[in-house]
Design a protein that fits this description.
Blueprint: E1 9-10, E2 19-23, H1 26-36, E3 40-53, E4 56-70, E5 77-92, E6 112-115, E7 120-121, H2 122-133, H3 143-149, H4 155-158, H5 162-165
Parallel strand pairs: 5-6
Antiparallel strand pairs: 1-7, 2-3, 3-4, 4-5
Length: 170
């Protein structure tokens, strides 16, 4: 497998109490922008504290990013700042788990990231968190005028309760 665009390998056995500061360089930001369909990523940083829990490692911190994406309506460049709390639990892959068997997860297991071997990739976890924080339908200031000019309903008039507004008695 190819190495991810923003890789920061950590060995669980070497985890200590220090805070890890990750900052994507220009080449990493350019590659991630391409991967996520963005115009640009101007800044991507994360500060994450790691704590061992047996073979697992808990990670908590914050992601900060400045991105430029396309407006979902006009296609114009739309600068967006993202600030997200991060919480992961890296766990070793279970040697006995069959890939075809059905698994039941409780809420505490949903943020678990399995890793194989002697290292896990904190940078890829941050990159995936950025991808999840991006609003794929973000619109800029000119979006409403473009909708009206095209004869499209605005967000308020097209919502699920728009038809009920006409039934409201005066």
């Amino acid at each position: 497998m190819d190495r991810p665009e923003f890789s920061y390998q950590v060995a669980p056995r070497q985890v200590d109490s220090r805070v890890h500061r990750l900052e994507a360089d220009e080449a990493e930001r350019t590659a991630l922008a391409k991967r996520f369909g963005l115009v640009a990523i101007d800044r991507l940083t994360a500060e994450i504290a790691l704590a061992r829990d047996g073979e697992a490692v808990d990670a908590a911190g914050r992601l900060e990013a400045d991105i430029v994406q396309s407006c979902a309506v006009t296609g114009d460049d739309l600068p967006v700042s993202i600030s997200e709390d991060l919480a992961f639990r890296f766990v070793p892959e279970s040697a006995g788990a069959a890939s075809e068997e059905e698994l039941e997860l409780d809420a505490g297991e949903l943020d678990e990231i399995p890793y194989a071997g002697e290292m896990f990739d904190l940078g890829e976890a941050v990159a995936q968190s950025l991808a999840l924080a991006i609003d794929p339908y973000a619109t800029g200031p000119g979006a409403e005028e473009v909708r009206k000019a095209a004869g499209l309903l605005g967000e308020e008039d097209a919502g699920p309760f728009a038809a009920l507004k006409g039934l409201k008695g005066d």
